[in-house]
Amino acid sequence: MQRSATDLGIQPLGRLLVKLSIPGMLGMLVMALYNIVDTFWVARLGGTAIAALTVNFPLQMIAGAVGIGTGVGVASLVARRLGQARGQEVNDIGGQVIIVPLSSGVVIALVSLLIPRQLLHLFGATEEIAELARAYLTAVAFGFPFLLFTMTANGLYRGLGNTLTPMVIMATSSGINLFLDPLLIFGIGPFPALGVQGAGLATAISQFAASLLSVSYLFSARSGYRIRLPNLRVRYAILVDIAQVGGPTALMHIGQSLVLSIFNWVLGGFGAVAIAAYGLTFRVTMLIFPIVAGVNQGLLPIVGFNFGAKQYRRMWHALKLAAAATSLIGLGIGVLIWIAATPIVQVFTREPELVELTVIAVRLVVLALWLVGPQIMAVSTLQGMGRGTEAMLLNFARQIIFVIPGLLILSHTFGVVGAFAARPVADLLGFLATAIYIRMVYCRHRPELDVATAAHPQPAEVSE
Predict the structure, then answer these.
(1) Contact 20, 164 (CB under 8 A)
(2) Three-class SS of the chain
(3) What is the CA radius of gyration of the chain?
(4) Alpha-carbon gap, residue 253 to 58, rounded angstroms
(5) Which pLDDT band, with edges at 50, 70 and 90, does 461 fall under?
């Protein structure tokens, strides 16, 4: 833990950000590739099968939101405690990771199994795809408790500046999923042909395997944690601290689920092919999010530690580096996707109507891709500072406040193309709102208030 604290506080920022971000990028890239390959296999079953998976996204995002929120809350709290020289408290934080995600996951799984049809209709399923969507949900739901545990435990490791272990765990899980997908979907060898249900079962099995790997690492000497029976007691003060950042973070992702449901409802009025096109667009644009998510995972512990240590100059410099890097990468990937949109989409489907509509949607969405990274880095900075509610509200500006009115107005005016255009419009407005708000936060935590600056004031500049 001491070595991690030293790295977060004094190692050159560019090198440190790259070191912490690359494992996260690789891990998320593996996850994105899994989703892409998963869609590739399911697409062999037709556009209706893709639409069935698309209406499952919101519920899976809700389950993931609890794990992501708790993981981010844990990572922020661990990093801040290290920065405050209170490292002895982190084992108690680790103890809560065993309790919260498993119990939450069991509740979500039970609800999904008891009322699957009602949930799916709530998230935009039409009668045409309802049965296929239910078959997928009743299989994938068994993995929810294990998914939540793994995502939360990953936050423990990232809080110490360890982004390599989460990458290994996610890569292992994705590898198992990739192996099982075609076997269970098409019934290769001794396996039964389960169709979309096979895809859900493969996902649940891989999540169970990931949780076993994470447990084994957490209780090993290499993890940096020494969790014993007394640490497993419920600590309400720690849960409140985790919830201050994790709760709003979870709500952010649940908000994304709400938006996706509204997209499904609106696009359902244009037919199943419109829902399928949006599902394919979501996966194609995933090519940028592993990079953004990786940098986000690297930035958060740096911000948390340096905010806790009141090293504001270093904290803001880290945000600038991360925002600039993700914006440039987003621009480059966006240009490539725009140029190669048609062949990329044709990897998944050759249905002419679906290809044509998806290419239009993809090209519209990537227009503002270069503005997304800086917004996510700003939200991550607020999370690292422990300002979870502010991070949530800033994220809601782009994900809900701007996108839903845009979706309703533009779809009514310009049809299905207008619906797809709502996303880049919201990204642009969200970027402007983020820049204004982060400037206000910067003024409250200026580099001049930095502990190091106060102890060693900078010499006044001499004008020529």
Answers:
(1) no
(2) CHHHHHHHHHCCHHHHHHHHHHHHHHHHHHHHHHHHHHHHHHHCCCHHHHHHHHHHHHHHHHHHHHHHHHHHHHHHHHHHHHHCCCHHHHHHHHHHHHHHHHHHHHHHHHHHHHCHHHHHHHCCCCCCCHHHHHHHHHHHHHHHHHHHHHHHHHHHHHHCCCCHHHHHHHHHHHHHHHHHHHHHHHCCCCCCCCCHHHHHHHHHHHHHHHHHHHHHHHCCHHHCCCCCHHHHCCCHHHHHHHHHHHHHHHHHHHHHHHHHHHHHHHHHCCCHHHHHHHHHHHHHHHHCHHHHHHHHHHHHHHHHHHHHCCCHHHHHHHHHHHHHHHHHHHHHHHHHHHHCHHHHHHCCCCCHHHHHHHHHHHHHHHHHHHHHHHHHHHHHHHHHCCCHHHHHHHHHHHHHHCHHHHHHHHHHHHCHHHHHHHHHHHHHHHHHHHHHHHHHHHHHCCHHHCHHHHHCCCCCCCCC
(3) 22
(4) 9
(5) very low
For 444, other C-beta atoms within 10 Å of its C-beta total: 8
Distance CA 373, CA 26 (A): 17
Please tell me the distance from the alpha carbon of residue 324 to that of residue 170, in angstroms, as a whole number: 27
Q: In this structure, are residues 200 and 138 in contact, taking their beta carbons and an 8 Å threshold?
A: yes
Smallest Cα–Cα separation from 13: which of 268, 301, 248? Answer: 301
192-226 residue pLDDT tens: 999 999 999 999 999 999 999 999 998 888 888 88
In sequence order, the 6+-apart residues with CB closer than 8 A to the CB of 131 are none
Q: How far apart are CA 20 and CA 448, in angstroms?
A: 27
> Is the pTM of the predicted complex or chain greater than 0.85?
no
CB of 231 closer than 8 Å to CB of 95? yes
**Both tokens assigned to 14:** 């560019």
Buried b (16+ CB within 10 A) or exposed e, 325-351: bbbebbbebbeebbeebeebbeebbeb
As given in the structure block, the two tokens for residue 148 are 């939540």
Separation of first and last alpha carbons in the chain: 47
Distance CA 198, CA 371 (A): 37
CB-CB contact of 56 with 140 (8 Å): yes
Q: How far apart are CA 430 and CA 403, in angstroms?
A: 9
Both tokens assigned to 370: 């270069």
The model's pLDDT over 395-452, given as tens digits with 9 standing for 90+, comes to 888 888 899 999 999 999 999 999 999 999 999 999 999 999 999 999 988 887 666 5
